[in-house]
From TrEMBL:
It catalyses: 2-phosphoglycolate + H2O = glycolate + phosphate. This is phosphoglycolate phosphatase. SUPFAM superfamilies: HAD-like (SSF56784). One of its GO terms (molecular function) is phosphoglycolate phosphatase activity.
Length: 224
């Protein structure tokens, strides 16, 4: 039995539109208007709420204002929770791949740096939570990716083994997390980080989920 671990934001789903809308809600609440662009700032969105707030503050000439980041972050989380699935879409073929792995007897789980409650809510609203055997979020443990502990917990919580697991992700955080645990990583090239992920030297790259089955079979051959 193999375990296929998926990152969420930027890997299974394009959540950038709703994330950026939540960050812009904070800036509008501050009275300075929207600071982030839904098209141009996708990559920052996938690095989390604090990263988006820092970018907006930098554009306001307030780089390094961590007190303001801390003040706005709870508001961002609430704004995001209130409108978590307005623009979000699953990437083409993602759930087809998940179902193929499940049908073949593999375990499928999620390890994300999105807070666990938000991840649970989003997947439930998208109608796909039941397709995953386990979920570990940013706050499930005291540490988050790239620390290997959440990835280990995602694998073991799904009933899998470390030496028969692979992580599917989209950022250097995923690449480093997999390396820290000693498992292979497959990075997707269809997200905003696509042009640069090859520079991270992952074990494999995919440009569409139709390619994933063959890649996983190569990295972790099925038991005879």
């Amino acid at each position: 039995m193999r375990t296929i671990v998926f990152d969420l934001d930027g890997t299974l789903a394009d959540t950038s539109g709703d994330l950026i809308a939540a960050a812009n809600f904070c800036f509008e609440h501050m009275g300075v208007g929207a600071q982030l662009d839904p098209a141009l700032d996708q990559s920052t969105a996938f690095h989390g709420g604090r990263a988006m707030l820092r970018l907006g503050l930098e554009r306001l000439g307030r780089a390094g204002d961590e007190d303001e980041v801390s003040r706005q972050y709870p508001l961002l989380l609430q704004a995001y929770a209130d409108r978590i699935d307005v623009f979000t879409t699953l990437y083409d073929g993602a759930m087809d791949a998940v179902e193929r792995f499940r049908a073949a007897g593999d375990r499928v789980t999620i390890c994300t740096n999105k807070p666990e409650g938000l991840a649970e809510t989003l997947l439930t609203r998208l109608g796909v939570r039941g397709a995953f055997d386990h979920l570990i979020g940013a706050d499930t443990l005291p540490v988050c990716k790239p620390d290997p502990a959440p990835l280990r917990a995602a694998i073991e919580g799904a009933g899998g083994a470390i030496d028969r697991a692979v992580l599917i992700g989209d950022t250097n955080t995923d690449r480093q997390c997999a390396a820290n645990l000693g498992i292979p990583v497959v990075l997707v090239t269809f997200g905003p980080n696509g042009p640069t992920v090859a520079d991270l030297n992952p074990e494999a790259l995919i440009s569409h989920y139709d390619e994933l089955d063959a890649v996983v079979d190569r990295l972790i051959p099925r038991a005879a």
